[in-house]
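Practice problem: predict the structure.
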Amino acid sequence: MNRGDANDELASDAPLLPTEQAATRQDAADSQTLSLDLTDSSSLFIWALTFSAGISGLLFGYEYISELAPSHARGRLVTILCLFITGGQVVAYIVGWLFSTTDSGWRWIVGLGTLPAVLQFAIVVALPETPRWLVQAGLEAEALHVLSRVYQDRSDNHQIAKQVVRSIQLEVAEEEEEMDRIKPSTDEIPWLGNVAQRAQDLFRVGGNRRALIIATMLQGLQQLCGFNSLMYFSATIFSMLSFTSPTLTSLSVAITNFLFTLLAFALIDRLGRRRILLYSIPVMSVSLIVCALTFASMELPAFSSEPRSDAQADNGVTNNSFLPIAILLCLTVYTASYAFGLGNVPWQQSELFPLNVRSLGSALATATNWASNFIVGLTFLPMMDWLSPGWTFSVYAGVCVVGWFGVWAIYPEMSGLSLEEVKGLLANGPPSRIKPADNRPTISGSSKRKSFTAASNRAQIIQYIAYLLPSDVDVVNLVSCCAHLARAILPAHSSIWRQRFKDLYGTPQGRSSSELKVEYQIRSIVLSQKINFQYGQKAEQTLWLEVLRDILLEALELMPTDEYTASKLLERIRETLHDSVFLNRPLSGYGDPKADAPSELFCAVQLCLTYLVLDPSMAVNCRRNDYDIGAVYSFQADVSKPLVNIEKLDLEKILHIRNFWLRHLLNLDEATFYSSYTSLCQRPKATRPLADSKFCLATQWLGYYSCIHPYPDSLSRLEHRQTCADLETHWPQVDPMSLRIKLDPDPSNWPTLFDSIMPILGSRTHCSYFRGIETQHGSDDDDDSTYLVRGFTEPIPTSHGGFPNWRRICFAIYDADREQLPLMPNDDETSGKEKEELWLPEEAWPPYDLEVEFNWIHGYEGVILPSGTIMIGRWIDMLEPTARGPFIFWNV
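Answer:
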């Protein structure tokens, strides 16, 4: 007979539980049979656990759920996994009982355990990566998409997702900065250095060390309280107590475990993890003590792990049949309180650790769990034999009492906090009993309501005091004083967040308290950083740019409807950038030829801050190597190709032109446009209020253009000369130009002759045509130096750098031969509104020959920035294209 046949025979002949073995094989007394029966008795639970693991495998790991779940539901979602585990145990007990009398039943149990595993594999394949991993891998767009799906039940899900991504980016940036710091010492074996650094961070950083202590304490307590000894050896215990069907009796324990795990699922985020443990552990202790006392009052035979006959079982207890029932009730209450608290809360461990040590910390905590499980499984039977059941359960009760004091002393409440907020909570010192204040009165009665009202009033007073503190550092110091202050100030519903946000950024628009808190903290932390781009743009710089961009976008969107809030946002941007090298060196990499090209986000933010860099009070200093003079003058470039491509805007080229003007308008050393510009009263503005969101071209513009004669034949000469504005013969050109224009829907304002040189790139139906006049700043419209202007603007359909509403603008300033294009005479009888338009003369139009009908004509092509107040670009001589140069205009 081979081994498989022998096992089948033994499995079919030998019952799986000691009491059943005694009932069916009363005549079998040899030790070999007893030994085999004991083996099969243990096998039932082994196979049951196998099937349970398969059932519980329907859901994924605690780490995955913790990182993906929103903070308000993280506790319940992690508890779902425990719910499936306990549900799997119930199913396993039922399956084990059904197959206990079947030939080769253990084979069926093992085989059925593979089905849930196959189903789990099919589900896991379709799951997305966690947002924190995606951000760490540089896939912010995918992380934003995943989070938008997570929060899809919220109307503002995209805004929430963006805030969560920001907080993750901040944490990742901090981690990368730390890894860059230790990079020189880990080049030889990068992965080993990475592990060593994470271990060092875990044990040496105070917040991480506290998280590890809490996690290992909870995981050790979960096992050392003795619950799994009940799950592993329940049939042995109930057999000793003379229950006729120990398997079905054990099933009652498993069902209780499942039902109270279900209760924990419903209440864990409402009551809080800490409160659940403080309420449930004492019930476990009392149940174990009563169970121990009951065992002590019973006359039990010497404990043996070997099965006993029915006669032995009948003599195993005293004549008081109530005592086994009392023990069963105590163990049921013990199981219920365990399932409600310790069975679930320790698996919330992932929320304790920051991203850089989360995997290592969770691994050590889980290892503590299994090591404690091994100790309990190894020692339970010897303790029952050597110490007696009463003392064994007393030891477990003592562990619960010690564990309760540990929870009370060091485990803070973390319900409703984001993973980033938990990190900050643990990093600020011993967590003690800090917990978010609960503003929901749960006990009725006038005295309770009065008490709650008084507490609310005290909290409001504390919040107002915190609000009056001059800086966020002072608020942190105040919170660190005691737990009571922290409970009053830290929660999202605290008024301090809305008040401080309003002071810095104006009235918040449609944001909840929790969103305001997150946004305020992100802006405060990110904008306080001294960021430079000397070595290019990394994650930290990208996050800083994104926060700056979002504030600027918010200001642009609010200007038409809420000028006060928009001005507060712009003032905050000014304060942030006043001493920043970001404006003083407006080029990523600082001209290093080895540096990466500036990102679209960098260029977009720089361009949209042009109004700020051209403010003399900001004292911005741009160097000649902060722009490419060849790109500024389109040196040796084909000017027949458009400067502005509406499908893909080259922001870097526009930024070079902007930086040229920054250098020559604000640097006295250049002796070019400085005196003219700094004497102006009307300089670029951040934005202007518009009547509606539809694009409306401003009517008054002021600006400069630069030329160089003769056009240089080498880039080195162009680099040296740069402009003719410092020549005495060109002083008139240093004075700013003034444009006065109005919208005119006539498409002939950009005739075919002009379009052949500067073509319309998009649909003509989307173009806005205009015409007007150009004069020297300060002169009258009737001055001899007045010239006519005609042009168009067209939308750039896509956002660039996250900013929408870029527009391409083309116009011509010309001096026409009035014999070829004569002016039309005005009607002397014109009256009323028509007289107001006499500043713009009519002329014979359209032209058909540039060289014949114009004395000179200059074509201007550029981009209007999203604010609608500044245009930057290139001009060319439409009769002699070798004459060219940069221009800049701003709305006045």
